[in-house]
Design brief:
alpha/beta, six-stranded mixed β-sheet, single chain
Length: 755
């Protein structure tokens, strides 16, 4: 009878027997199995010790071989069930740990003791190879499943790439709209699975390192630009400008220093723009001249960028790419996702950068508006999804971090306009606001149509932006509501509304020209109501106060209270984002130091460790991975001044000279000397600008001339005829004289001519 038949008969008998009989049958079965096992072992290894001999030689429990751990168990002959194979491998693992009682007779022979060590024989090496084959055989189902998962991931990514490539074909552009769309109430679509598969490949296992280089946007409001660098790729978020302050006389605007990007051009993959404000797109016409990279942005943002590039003559050569919310752009080691947010301009986006180190979330400028005037509210659901998946770092807007509470909805301003229009039915209304605040303009148009008023747009930036927004369908109005400013004279005051630029007191804006009486087509008077629908940007307070006074002097009614809501998140909104995202690290951005410090305190309040919230400065390089986030280096960064057509040719020295000229004026001492003798032929002539009125200070000018002559005599007596030395002596003597007489320090410029 075979072993199999014996087992079957024993099983049948055991089923009908009592408890005692079952025990005897099981004992008998165990004995037969042991004999069979012993016979098989003797056939496979000639001369090996028996199990009984091994048992007698076995030390006490817990003892270990003196010669070290045996590294394998003998390979048995004959077929085994998977459970038996697993048991054998488990014994081999125990042998590897040094438990001698689990050793098989075959394996003991394969080791030759040599003192306290051991030598592995050729047969033992062969056994180890067989053991590895056993492991591979048992782990094949697991490996097969892993390979299957990998193949599915690769297939998903290939499908994603095919769809991305198809987007470039004009006929396939229509399909782009819903490519990465989400079902808000249902499970993820296939596209979302493909996108997540791509993220997994981009993130790898989170073992990579990323550098974050701040080239602007810190320590000030404006000039936002941040680079994210991996081993082979760099992507740049935003490329904005800043307006000059009072310490920059004659400067038109300020752009960031992109020296670092120029030095790493081979790694650059593109610019990713969060929204269309000047402090995020204003430097593109200057930067794209040097770095003609793809620019990825949403619809309205692209339209505003096109206007700027067209003025600069760069539109034809630029590479602008339009994306939808939820779209993902693959850029080297990065996959950049656009997420819907709210701001004071339409089409604002946050960016989720899926990197080899993990996901880095950049909020851009944002607010939480549940009832926006146009479009959908902020996509908090996606923020929460990212937080659940894991966010390595959060770069959050800090502009309003010092303000407690929540930011009011844009719709609340509409109620204020409703009250103003109702109260001043017989007056002409002039509303000054930001040109880019399309939602604000839409609400003004809505109220104007309700009260039967025609709308006039004035100011170059206002005309350009509202025109672009109207073409894209972001502004809706009845036919005939909008009229040209030249037609305004055909309507009475109570039937017109002007929407103009200049809410920040800009000298050349439409409202400033009206306040100064310099506007060619609008004259303000007692029947005009001026609404300043904005709050002063930090640094513009004096300019705004000045224009309010000028408007009041023309006997107009000026309204500037409760006519504006911010486009930036206040403290509680920022806490909400932190609670949804749960970042491992936080880096406050977009604001002055006090704003970013306030956000740091908010992050700590919601539970982030102090050491995980970093305060960076412009030019700092942060290296971040799953294990740490530190400021590693500092690169060249800062403001580049634009004056007319000159870019960067005005530096600190020139600015200092301009400040000196503006504060104290200049004195020019012109002298003509004979070439051979060095004698004074003509002069010295004293010319001043911005110092004193010459006709009323002739005595001072005469004394200054005498000081110059005395300085020339001193140089002649010393025998030093070097012109540089003579100029320095004249400058020093005049400086001392002017300070003694006037307590001023004008710029002194000696000019010597040789005849």
């Amino acid at each position: 009878m075979t072993k199999k038949e014996t087992d079957n008969n024993n099983s049948v008998r055991a089923q009908g027997a009592g408890t005692g009989e079952k025990k005897q049958l099981l004992k008998k079965k165990k004995t037969e199995s042991t004999k069979t096992k012993s016979q098989t072992a003797k056939q496979g290894t000639k001369g090996a010790k028996t199990s009984q001999e091994l048992k007698e030689e076995k030390p006490k429990k817990g003892g270990r071989r003196s010669g070290g751990a045996n590294r394998g168990a003998g390979r048995r002959t004959g077929s085994k069930k998977p459970a038996a194979k697993i048991a054998e491998l488990q014994r081999a693992e125990l042998l590897k740990a040094g438990y001698e009682e689990m050793m098989e007779p075959e394996s003991l022979k394969d080791y030759e003791n040599e003192g306290s060590g051991f030598t592995v024989t050729e047969k033992a090496r062969e056994f180890l190879k067989l053991r590895q084959a056993q492991i591979n055989e048992l782990s094949e189902p697991v490996l097969r499943q892993k390979r299957l998962n990998h193949e599915r991931t690769v297939e998903a990514v290939e499908r994603y790439r095919e769809k991305t490539a198809a987007m470039a074909v004009p006929e396939a552009k229509e399909a782009k709209r819903g490519l990465f769309g989400r079902k808000r109430a249902g499970k993820k679509t296939q596209d979302i699975k493909e996108r997540d598969a791509l993220y997994e490949l981009k993130r790898g296992i989170g073992q990579g390192k990323i550098k974050i280089i701040f080239l602007g946007g810190l320590e000030q409001i404006g000039m936002n630009i941040t680079a994210f660098e991996s081993e082979t790729s760099i992507v740049v978020v935003d490329c904005g400008m800043a307006f000059p302050d009072t310490s920059m006389p004659g400067i038109d605007l300020v752009i960031p220093d992109i020296t670092y990007l120029e030095e790493h051009q081979d790694k650059l993959k593109g610019f990713f723009i969060t929204h269309g404000h000047e402090d995020h797109i204003g430097a593109l016409p200057y930067v794209l001249r040097k770095l003609n990279l793809p620019v990825y942005c949403t619809r309205l943002t692209r339209a505003l960028i096109e206007l700027k590039l067209k003025e600069a003559g760069l539109l034809e050569s630029s590479k602008l790419e339009t994306v939808q919310f939820g779209d993902v752009v693959e850029a080297g080691d990065f996959a950049v996702e656009f997420i819907k947010t709210n701001h004071s301009i339409q089409d604002a986006a946050a960016l989720a950068l899926h990197t080899p180190a993990g996901t880095i979330l950049h909020t851009g400028d944002f607010k939480v508006d549940y009832t926006p005037v146009y479009g959908d509210p902020i996509d908090l659901q996606r923020f929460a999804e990212l937080g659940k998946q894991g966010v390595l770092a959060l770069l959050c807007d800090s502009t309003n971090a010092v303000r407690p509470g929540f930011t009011m909805s844009e719709r609340t301003v509409g109620c204020t306009f409703e009250n103003i229009f109702s109260e001043y039915r017989t007056s002409r209304i002039v509303v000054a606001t930001f040109a880019s605040n399309v939602d604000r303009v839409q609400q003004i148009i809505n109220v104007s149509e309700k009260y039967g008023r025609k709308v006039v747009i004035d100011g170059r930036s206002m005309v350009n932006i509202i025109g672009a927004a109207n073409e894209l369908g972001y502004i809706k109005m009845n036919k005939g509501t909008l009229i040209d400013i030249s037609e305004m004279k055909n309507y009475p005051d109570d039937k017109t509304v002007l929407i103009v630029t200049g809410s920040q007191g800009e000298p050349m804006a439409a409202l400033s020209r009206m306040a100064q009486g310099l506007h060619k087509k609008v004259y303000l008077g007692e029947n005009d109501v001026i609404v300043l629908s904005s709050t002063p940007i930090p640094g513009n307070e004096k300019a705004v106060s000045k224009i309010i006074n000028e408007l009041s002097m023309r006997h107009t009614k000026v309204i500037y209270q409760d006519t504006h809501v911010s486009g930036h998140a206040c403290a509680e909104d920022i806490k909400l984002i932190y609670s949804l995202v749960h970042p491992k690290y936080a880096i406050p951005v977009h604001g002055e130091y006090r704003h970013r410090l306030a956000q740091r305190e908010l992050a700590i309040q919601v539970g982030m460790p102090k050491e995980d919230v970093l305060m960076a400065d412009t030019g700092d390089v942060i290296e971040i991975c799953k294990d740490y986030c530190v400021i590693q280096d500092h690169v060249q960064a800062g403001p580049v001044l634009v004056d007319g057509l000159g870019i960067g040719d005005v530096g600190n020295i020139v600015l200092r000279d301009r400040q000196t000229l503006a504060q104290n004026g200049i004195i020019i001492a012109a002298i003509a000397l004979e070439r051979s003798t060095g004698q004074v032929v003509a002069g010295p002539d004293i010319v001043t600008r911005g110092f004193v009125y010459v006709r009323e200070n002739e005595d001072l000018i005469k004394e200054a001339r005498d000081v110059v002559l005395d300085a020339l005599d001193d140089c002649a007596l010393s025998g030093n005829d070097d012109w540089a030395h003579i100029k320095n002596v004249i400058r020093d003597e005049l400086n001392e004289f002017i300070w003694r007489r006037m307590k001023r320090t004008p710029m002194i410029l000696p000019i010597i001519s040789e005849v």
